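ok so heres the complex, three chains, lmk if somethin looks off
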Amino acid sequence: MPPLLVIDHHNGVPAYRQIMDQIKLQIATGVLAAGAEMPSTRTLSADLALNPMTISKAYSLLEHDGALERRRGQTLVVRAVKDAEGRSARLELLRTQFAAAASLARQLDIPKDEAIRIFKASLDETQS
Amino acid sequence: MNPTASSPCPPFVARQITKRYDQHVALKDFSLEVPAGRVVGLLGRNGAGKTTLLNIAAGLVLPTSGESFTFGIPGANLDSPQLTRLGVVQQEGRCIEWMTVRQHLDFNASFYPGWDRELEKRLVAALEVDPARKIVQLSTGDRQKVNILLGVCHRPELLLLDEPMSALDPIVRARLLDQLLERLREDGCTVVISSHILDDVEKIVDWIVGIDQGELVEDRAFDELQESYAEWTLISPHGSLPASFSEPYILSHQGDERQALLRVHTRDAGAAGRLAASVQAEIRVRPLNLEEMFPLITSSRRKA
Amino acid sequence: MKLHPYLRVLRPVRTLALSVVYILFVWSWLRTFFRVPAPVDRFLAIALVGSTLHGSLLIGPLHEVMHRSFAAFLPGLHRRLARWHAWGVGVSALIFTAVLAFVSMEVPLPASLGLVLASLSLPALNQRRRFRGGLRLWHPGMMALGGLIAAFAPMAVHRACTGAPWLVLALSAPIVYLSFRYGFDRRLTRRRALEPVFCIQTTILFNQRIISEARSQMLALTQKQAKGGRGRDWTVKSVGGSTWAWLRVQFHVLFGRSTVFYQVVAVQALLYPLLALLFPYLMEKATHPDTATLAGVLRQFLDNPPVSGNPMGSFASIGPVLMLSGLTMFYAVLVASAVPHRKFPISRERMARVQFAYAILVVAANFAIAILGASVLVLGACVLTGLPPGLGPLTRMLAVLMVLMAATPLIMIISLFKRALWRIVVSILLAVPTIPLCIYVATSGNSFAVSPLGLIAFLPVWILSAWCGWRAFLRHYRTADLGTQTSILLVAAQSGCGN
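and the predicted structre for the whole thing:
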């Protein structure tokens, strides 16, 4: 199953960056399991209606970051990562999201402990 | 295999070209290199010199001074070997008006050894052109489609597109973009496209060349450009923002002491944080799309 | 080599038909007007003038291709066109030489072939250069050259061909070479690709869409040349509010630089007298095949003899007058009534006023042209017949024009009727009194119309018909869809799209 990617051409984030972020997220959430094959540059560029150069840039950066690796000739697959490594990647994703929330909290002048309480509450909400 | 791999020289090179029309200077000391496989978006306001540059690349117009090379050959000497590899779609291309679309396609096809009938058929269907109609009976949009057909069906290595879709509706434009992407995938051709329909340009280009008043103002990868232009929103509940900012990368500023909207041009990832800290404000960073970048790109020279 | 695309571009049927018409026309003119004696006229008509015309018919469609924007990018276009043209010229030369072998047996074949080849390939040298204001020099130049040869050296050409046939053939070689060498010069590619050309095979059948296309392309080019690449917007701020100012804008838009206007006037003033002479002559020839000569027709025209009995019996004396005034007024009506609707930022009432003023001016200008043409005709006739000039023909002409002047505003508005039936009815209603009146005025030699009393009598008629015309214009412009219609004949005259 190829990764389901949605590119917004109009939000100003470079397309290669959107691809990278989405694939990383899918790896971190386990949607893309280790060893899963990525579609070829040609196929993905046809699917997403994107310049093939953009796809190959995203792929090579993902390879560089260690999210993907080349195997059996030219096929790109999701690299199997150690638990600790995967955990730190997941935390990193959460951290970026949380930085924005923290900034908003400061703007709204919400005290630290209250913000933490809200975050805890929303964690409970999604669990139930 | 890949035709571009066999040509060592970049498809188009301009070296310090100046083009003058009577009093009017269309291009001024303009240097540019378009390497193979690149998809260049040519940005500039009306009369900036985009069409002149494309015409020079096509050998239709010669520079007043300086040199231009297409496939390594000076623009004045382009001949069959180069022309078969070149595809041009002009903004207001004039066809042989009395011919039907079919006749015109056949006529042009007879000049190219590599005219792709299959591609032609697909494009005719995708662009919804009626091959039985005479050119003279066609609307502006349909003539534009014919120009595209005539410029693309021989699968050129270098494709010069001057406002190729200004008169096309969104559905046909989307199909055209799909077809262009297919050309990129299959032929790996080099494309230089000038268009004011930035939404569409955004989807295919990987490089941006900005022209303003005949001068080169931007020549950079599109990704890089997207990462370097941004809109920063500074919010200070205490009203601690200064009336103006002295940082050189800030291109525009509006707001008051509590809130400020900045358009910036910097590749320094830490700059936003530092600025926020220096004025004790919260900062929100939003990337800009091409339409929002356009005025910043095409007038940066004037600002400086 | 694939000749299929060549034939597609050339349109051989049209080319051949035009060629035959041209040659017959040239032949009749050489015989009648230039009075070239019998065996020589055939030879010159085919080998020299006809071949040149045929050559320009052959090259026209190729020029049309060269003068398209994609022409600069088609690989090997010029070489291929040159090869195609070589075929066209070669085949035509064989046919022409074969025809000459039968109709001009006295001329040796090498001379025929040489002259035909040179004449066929010469028109390739036409660079289709279009000077500012749309002036072209090639065709007037060629016509003048042809006229000079036909008038002064027809026998010399013939004698050279019969006397030194191989020399003629040898001399033709460099002409053919130079024509092909410079006619398909790649250095001209760029200029050619930027300037539109329409050949006569394209425009011949009055295909209005093509012609209006040609017109708009020519106008765009004219404005580009005049403004250094920038178009121009007409606003009330830049033009002003007066009808007269907008009238000038209209003239500018239609004619670009005023040289075009003078060109049109000159062509009319010279061409119409010739046409006006041709038809009476042909009619005379048809009715009195033995006695009819051009000089006879001219003499009758100058003599102004009193006509008794059947006025049409002596068409020679009144024909030129009727033809000339009819032609000019017909042209004026066509031009004035088929003005393109332009989207000027002015009210519909003012638009009507501008267009009506324009129409009146065109009619007045053509009135003057008709007088000019008549003077040319009278002077030419005097020179050719040796008779002293007289005012008779001019007086009759003036009288006919005065009648026509009354009718023109009404003729003009015929095209404004939307229903074809109404157009026909009004045309008949107008023709019934006008035509007999014109013939009467032309034949009777009655000078009442041109006397002061006649002038006073005609004045209310003019005013009445002009008022009718004005009301119709006003009504039309109040209700018409603006920006859709384009004119027909003006285009052909102005854009020089004919061959």
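quick notes: Residues 14 and 68 of chain B are 4 Å apart (CA to CA). thats all i got rn
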